[in-house]
Design brief:
Mean pLDDT: 83
Largest sheet: 5 strands, mixed
Number of helices: 12
Radius of gyration: 27 Å
Oligomer: single chain
Helix content: 40-55%
Low-confidence stretches: 360-390
Shape: elongated
Number of strands: 14
Number of domains: 2
């Protein structure tokens, strides 16, 4: 299945969509309140089918289709399931109307698409959107999304396989080391600069945020200031997404195998919170994996605990290397290393080994080390030195 996004024209009709989102927010909060109250009394949660029967008999909604209400209840049940399965850190929370961002129309009905006209039967309104590309295929569901600025989009999910672009470089491989000063370093020595979209606009954001805080509560001026601040954040996010998508396509066009580290982003955010959010490495990796499927490219993650920047090509591990040291000399072989380039090269070697070894232990890799590094052999290394994967 593929998803295609279209933007709705801004008009006075969109206020009807705002009312639909307000009703969807009521359904979410009401169902969540019932769950909390039921658990407090009986010590267990209401099953999804019982919650649906309750809404069919007791709660009558005027603007939402029945399938949309059921999807909201399923969304709440899935949120609780993630919490009980320990994949989410907290239970679902109550939401404000302005923070409710999406409603879903299923295949059974409630809407129709005719060219660039989207019709909602329940309210009897038609909305036009920019038809940037055709939506050919069987429509499985349709999502109406509202962003922080108040703009509406529709996402059409079609039962159709995504188009394949195909490989352009068979056999070409690259290792990628993500950084803080540079956005990433490739194993061929290429360094991509950090665009720093948030940092460059930080002063403007502070000014807009200060004006918003000084404006009067519930005034039209405060609403305008809130929209201006939301547009500024949305602009930064759009520029970052554009940079990441273009970079992902460029890498997939050049390489057949791409190796990256499985980073501990939660721990890194504690040390460099705003900077890590500005870099958004996790978002880039998810985009890279999505684009790689179209190109038929392999994206492989190596273990986060592998010391890629501390391991010399001779096998020596510099355990005392500090983060501030960008270059270091191997005390064993005397080689001068650039920390980022060395890490990218080691990620490439490690990734190739893991793909070729098919899950074998490091002991098997040491037997093949002379093939990966023709200038290094077991006999040329000190006896006490441990042969490590690089």
């Amino acid at each position: 299945m593929i998803a295609q996004e279209y933007k709705l024209y801004k008009s006075n009709k969109t206020r009807h969509l705002d009312k639909m989102f307000e009703e969807a927010c009521f359904v979410w909060n009401h169902a969540l309140a019932l769950q909390k109250r039921y658990y407090k009394i009986f010590g267990k949660y209401v099953p999804e089918n019982k919650m649906q029967k309750h809404f069919e008999k007791r709660i009558q909604r005027n603007l939402l289709h029945s399938d949309t209400v059921i999807e909201l209840l399923q969304r709440l049940d899935a949120a609780y399931s993630r919490f009980f399965n320990h994949t989410s850190k907290r239970t679902p929370k109550f939401k404000k109307n302005k923070d409710f961002s999406s409603i879903v129309f299923k295949r059974s009905g409630g809407y129709s698409l005719n060219g660039n006209i989207f019709t909602v039967y329940k309210i009897g309104k038609k909305f036009k959107f920019w038809l940037s590309r055709d939506y050919n295929g069987k429509i499985k569901r349709l999502v109406v999304k509202r962003n922080r600025v108040g703009e509406f989009y529709i996402i059409v999910i079609i039962d159709k396989p995504s188009s394949s672009i195909g490989k352009s470089h068979n056999g070409a491989s690259v290792g990628i080391d993500f950084g803080l000063k540079t956005y990433m370093t490739l194993s061929d020595g290429t360094k991509i600069k950090n665009p720093q979209f948030l940092k460059n606009e930080l002063q403007k954001l502070r000014i807009k945020s200060h004006k918003l805080s000084k404006s009067k509560e519930s005034s039209n001026n405060r609403k305008r200031k809130r929209v201006e601040l939301a547009k500024a954040y949305d602009n930064i996010s759009s520029r970052r997404n554009d940079f990441q998508w273009k970079l992902a396509h460029e890498l997939c066009r050049k390489y057949d195998k791409i190796f990256v580290e499985d980073l501990n982003l939660t721990g890194m955010c504690k040390c460099w919170g705003r900077k890590m959010q500005d870099l958004a490495h996790a978002d880039f990796v998810s985009k890279l994996e999505h684009v790689a499927k179209k190109y038929g490219v392999i994206v492989h993650k190596i273990d986060r605990f592998y010391p890629s920047s501390k391991t010399c090509t001779c096998g020596y591990v510099n355990k005392e290397l500090k983060l501030s040291e960008r270059k270091w000399v191997c005390p064993d072989c005397g080689t001068l290393h650039d920390r980022d380039v060395l890490a990218a090269e080691n990620i490439l070697r490690r990734g190739i080994y893991e793909l070729e070894s098919d899950g074998k232990t490091l002991k098997h890799f040491s037997k093949r080390q002379s093939r990966l590094h023709p200038t290094i052999s077991k006999e040329s290394m000190p006896r006490k030195q441990k042969i490590l994967t690089i």
